Amino acid sequence: MNDEFFNLVRIHSLQQNNQLMSRICAITGKRPRVGGRIIHKGVSKKAGGIGLQLVKVNKRKFRPNLQRVRVKLPSGEVKRLWVSAKAIKAGKIEKA
Q1: What is the pTM of this model?
Q2: Nearest by Cα to 58 from 78, 34, 80
């Protein structure tokens, strides 16, 4: 649990220095990732075709599910932070 709080303090200090970090989880560090959406054509062999052919790979972004939550920091201060839903479910933060 201490690692998360050190992370919170680091993020808190970055925000005080006007270095805003958008779309990044304050606890887990999750951020948007680049990936691809693969498009196939054809009929699978199982269904009686000659197989699926890869036609195209479209670039896309996988964005984390961030929520704005009021968090109680180790110093006792209450701060609004962007936190991923996974971190909230895992109980890695103490809600204020």
Answers
A1: 0.63
A2: 34
Domains observed in the chain: 2-89 (2.20.150.30)
Do residues 74 and 8 lie in contact, with contact meaning Cβ atoms separated by under 8 Å?
Answer: yes
For residue 35, the SS3 value is strand
Q: Which long-range contacts (CB under 8 A, 24 or more apart) does 84-88 make?
A: 84/25, 84/27, 84/28, 84/30, 86/28, 86/30, 87/4, 87/25, 87/27, 87/28
| Predicted local confidence at residue 22, as pLDDT | 80
Q: Give residue-wise pLDDT tens across range 39-57.
A: 999 999 999 999 999 999 9
pLDDT band at 6 (very low <50, low <70, confident <90, very high): low
Nearest one of 40, 7, 35, 38 to 21, comparing CA atoms: 7
Q: Are 69 and 93 in contact (CB under 8 A)?
A: yes
